[in-house]
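INTERNAL AUDIT FORM
Audit reference: QA-55
Scope: verify that the stored structure record matches its stored sequence.
Auditor: D.O.
Record contents follow.
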Amino acid sequence: MDDQDLQQWVEQISLASFGRPFVHQARFNRRLRSTGGRYFTKSHDIDISWTQWETFGRDEIEKIIKHELCHYHLHILKRGYQHRDLDFKTLLAQVGGSRYCRALPRPSKNQPYKYRLECVNCKTEYYRKRKMDVRKYACGKCKGKLKSYKLDLTTSS
């Protein structure tokens, strides 16, 4: 599905569920992670999370679209369009939109260490999952310079 398909789908949902046309832009946003969609009050455009689409599919996205269309139509009608407003909560329940989007699965925190830092003076070792600039940091014990080594993650049996 691309932005053009999404635009047509949002227009169809708007007419079917709200009885009013959606005349602004709807598009996918690949940067949205913690939210399913976003309604812009100044431009009246809607962004939908591409990650939600890939992870949960059509049914979940339809609920997110209905949620964002509730914001859209209530804002256009100059009624309470915010989450806390009774107008919003009532309309959302009527059209069957979701109050919250489903949480995306988080990457595992049990990833192996990729880098080993060693103090040049006292030989203290530190292990890290992410690379860091050793020129900006010093040893926590003796304030000596650090040297970075990339660990070999291949296991030999």
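Auditor finding: record pair retrieved intact. The mean pLDDT is 92.
Action required: none
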